Sequence to fold (469 residues):
Amino acid sequence: MKRTKLDGVKHAIRTIEGSLEVAVLTVAYYLVWRIGYDAGTFPAYFGYGKIVLAGVYALLTLVLFRNFDGFEFGYMKLFDVIISQWIAMALANFITYWQLCLIANAVVSPAPILLLTVIDAVIIFVCVYLFTVIYHHLYVPKNMVMIYGTESALTLKFKMDTRKDKYRITKLIDISEGFDAICKVIVNYDAVIINDVHAEIRNDILKFCYKNGIRTYVSPKITDIIVRGATRISLFDTPLLLVRSKGLTLSQRAVKRIFDVVLSAIAMIVAAPIMLITAIAIKIEDGGPVFYKQERVTIHGKVFQILKFRSMIVDAEKDGKSHPATDRDPRITRVGSFIRATRIDELPQILNILKGDMSIVGPRPERVEHMQEYGKDIPEFAFRLKVKGGLTGYAQIYGKYNTSPYDKLRLDMNYIENYSLMLDIKLVLTTLRILLSKESTEGFDKLEELERMKQEILKEQAEAVSEEV
Fold:
């Protein structure tokens, strides 16, 4: 009960903080609008109309902030929240500018709105910093216990340890200890994590935690994600869930294709000078081909040639096998090092999108041999092929180079089962934030470190069991 009350207080504080920030941003908009534009341009809006205009701006800001994770103070990292709000605010001001043009029935000067955007950026930085500090002063990381079923499940602990400001896993329990023994332990902890546990005993533990009011985190299985995306049917007194199993509907595919063509055409116009300069730089450095082509698999198992700017020496994989690049890989050229760090090497895939082989948002197209390899251990990996492969998506945004195939599958299935145009827009804008983060570029060299840490934990667990015996 105490934990529930605390959660309620934190939610209330976050709501107050968000409302206060939107109010300050709205006041800034009102002042810039009154001072920056001639009173004769908007005469009808200097009465009660100004309240309506300010209200519309506040509502637009609120909706965009909520949709782009702008109010996740303390939940997301400080810089991530700031970037999310900056992007949302820039979009809000862009829409507002054209709204003012429509009201004035003329193209008004963008200078006041540009000034407002700069002022907003400062306000956002100050507000998010203060609200994050307040959150961490009120919030103490939970004393958590993780129940795991396999050794590979321990990887989640390492990931959560990177956010010790939010999570503190102080005990690990192997599921082999049995349901009764586990229940006696978990009642002494603030929260429980259930990871990679067989469905039957997982459900028993989940029901026990629910009954006793214990906060529980569950790492979902593929079937959980499929069910979560199902359509609810309420025609009878027995609840039903409909799993369509067909991927996107015809109308969804049509909307998605229009979105792809329009956005990629605009992106092509903007990116053309950068692509031209990059092509020249690659050619000058070693005289080799500008593009790197590789066979990838997309919707329904179709194989296509994905395009990238070449970032490695010619014949870097002349043996035909995949050799993922690591930090300071000698095969990476000087130009390649820059375009990989800035993701410019991915820009030619705009041509793949315009052609129809790829989508802007979707599962990352895998190499043919990778699909075959992953399919041996994870037959469900082919579920990703219910939609076109994408330039960005859940796995590309939240995953890393060393993210396991099963985790990639779960991220991609989350996207497929919850697709909407609004989700595509959100993921595209979120990608802009991720491009500024170094976390997503962690390489395969981290795998050895993770394996070493995993073995240390298993050794400690074994020693603890020996001492108890």
Summary: Residues 250-286 form the longest helix (37 residues). The radius of gyration is 26 Å. Residues 440-445 have pLDDT under 50 and may be disordered. The chain has 16 helices and eleven strands.
